[in-house]
Amino acid sequence: MTRFARITGTGSFLPPRRVSNQDLVNQLAALGVETSDEWIVERTGIQARHFVDDHTHTSDLAFEASCRALRAAGRQPQDLDLIIVATSTPDMVFPSTASILQRKLAQLDAASAGIAGCAAFDVQAVCTGFVYALSVADAMIRAGNARCALVVGAETFSRLLDFNDRTTCVLFGDGAGAVVLEASERPGIAACDLHADGRHVDILCVPGHVHNGQVTGDPVLKMDGQAVFKLAVGLLEGAALKALAQAGWQAQDIDWLIPHQANIRIITSTARKLKLPMERVMLTVHDHGNTSAASIPLALDHGVRAGQIKPGQKLLLEGVGGGFTWGAVALTL
Ligand code: UT7
Question: Whose CA is closest to 134, among 72, 172, 177?
Answer without folding.
Answer: 177
